[in-house]
Amino acid sequence: MTEQAGPVRVPRGLAGVSVSDTRISKSSSDGSLVYRGYPIAELAAKATFEETAYLVLNGKLPTRGELDSFAATLAGLSGVDGKVFEVMRALGPGAHPIDAIRTGVSALGSIDPARSSPGRQHSIESKMSALAANSRRVPAGEEPRRPGEGRGFAESLLQMLTAREATEFERWVFERVLIFYMEHDMNASTFTVRVVASTLADPYAAASAGLASLKGPLHGGANEAAMEMLLQVKSPGDAKDFVDSTVKQGKKLMGFGHRVYKEFDPRARLCKQYLREMAERRGGDGGIYGVCEAVEGEMWERKRIPPNLDYYAAPIFYLLGIEVPLYTPVFAASRVFGWMAHYNEQVEENKLIRPDSTYIGPTGLTYRPIGERQR
Ligand code: COA
After folding, report:
1. Which of 158, 180, 226, 286 is the Cys-Cys partner for 267 at CB 3.0 to 4.6 Å?
2. Nearest CA to ligand 1 atom 3
3. pTM (whole model) above 0.90
């Protein structure tokens, strides 16, 4: 009889393990990131959000006709039924915004008129914006803000979030940040989405699972945590003490570190440039850029750990006037496009994702009735 091989052991957290082939995107330790073969800096410099979303979903840049039709489809599906907002409102003012969106997406899975149509994924992608922008307002009993007509995806989302007219440059920057948040190969929420997709559950179920995974501060919640941290550092001169005492307490600095990027995160570098230009154009930023740069310098000096996208996206959102608890919802409004691309890729070449584990608990115990058990 041949000896049965045990399960393959993989590093904790699946670090460095490739769990799937993908054609969608790739981040690499040398600081490069490509979406469907296009370097991120190229897309950031030249593409719109809708073009990039089409690329991520379809694997090629759209023609003018394809782009117009895609943008019109998204705009046409963007309205959220009042019943979905009622479900979110029932959660009450204490609801966490991500819980509110997740509840909204779950409700959509039952009542979205598009749920049985081939366009249901575009319905989720499009409606996620209004769910995100209203994820605090609606549970708090306020009226939902609706997507504005005649505005592009990014502009409409920003308008719903802030209820103010942003400058052209601010809109441009916000759109770049959304492009960066759209897709990032096998991150935790995308992996979650692929696990759910592999069971052949519907995309509403997959998106709500993605949202659950995004909530934590080690993933999507990091942009809010980074902003709360930055607000504690009053001036660049306080950065050294702040970094020292956080590290000494064994705590992590939010917005630093990455599973893949060890030298630099290309998205953070670009966002840093945008933040500096925003501060210059405004003629002042309350000192945020200086604090960011000082904390980054101290962290590199001390730990050789670079900032990630969340670190520089957060102060951009702050200057745009977006409330801090809405930062992770903004991430979700964009990442849903990447999730849907991965959902489709998983289903097209499906194999149920069902790993094994190594049991290290006790064995051979004998059941005793409850009255005979010792504490
Ligand atoms: N602050 C302080 N130290 C950090 C750190 C941070 N933000 N990120 C990593 N480190 C340290 C760890 O303490 C660990 O040190 P050790 O080897 O002395 O124990 C080492 O760097 C490796 O970190 P680890 O958490 O094991 O790496 P990872 O690849 O599992 O984690 C993250 C990646 C993103 C989870 C991690 O960097 C982190 O928690 N960052 C803060 C949250 C964040 O910004 N998340 C958004 C990611 S895009």
Report:
1. 180
2. 252
3. yes
Burial category of 140 from C-beta neighbours within 10 Å (exposed 0-12, middle 13-18, buried 19 and up): middle
CATH superfamily ID and name for 222-320? Cytochrome P450-Terp, domain 2 (1.10.230.10)
Most ligand 1 atoms within 8 A of CB, residue of 29, 260, 267, 305 to mutate: 305
- What's the rounded mean pLDDT across residues 162-191? 97
pLDDT value at position 375? 75
Question: b or e along 357-368 (b: 16 or more beta carbons within 10 Å of the residue's beta carbon)?
Answer: eeeeeeeeeeee
**Mean per-residue pLDDT of the chain:** 96
Query: What are the pLDDT digits (tens) for 109-159?
Result: 999 999 999 999 999 999 999 999 999 999 999 999 999 888 999 999 999
User: In degrees to the nearest 10, what's the CA dihedral of 71, 77, 82, 84?
Assistant: -100
pLDDT mean over 59-63: 98
Which of 247, 251, 258, 328 has most ligand 1 atoms within 8 Å of CB, for mutation?
258
Is the CB of residue 305 below 6 angstroms from any atom belonging to ligand 1?
yes
Architecture of domain 41-215+327-348: Orthogonal Bundle (1.10)
pLDDT for 319 beyond 70: yes
**CA of residue 254 to ligand 1 center, whole Å:** 9
The structure tokens listed for 45 are 């410099």
Q: Where are the domains of the chain?
A: 41-215+327-348, 222-320
The protein residue with its alpha carbon nearest to ligand 1, atom 31, reads: 259
Residue 258 in contact with ligand 1 by CB distance below 6 A:
yes
